[in-house]
Amino acid sequence: MKDNQTKWNLNWWDTNQREFPLIAAAARDYLVIPLSKVDIKRLFNVGRDILGIRRFVISTKTLGILIILRDNLVIAEKEAE
Q: What are the residue boundaries of the structural domains of the chain, listed by start?
């Protein structure tokens, strides 16, 4: 349903871009941004899983490295299947 609404909005702005050129350009830029709510939730869940209860003093740099390593491990496991 949201895809249909986004297409309708883009079509409306395409039709009315001569009347509102600057707003139409901004709408095109804004409406094409995909929602990333799921990815952010996944990232926070991964961070929570890595930190756990006892590792809350890990630096942000170390946490970032651990997340990258974990993602690479998951990818390698999928490729091995």
A: 2-31, 37-80
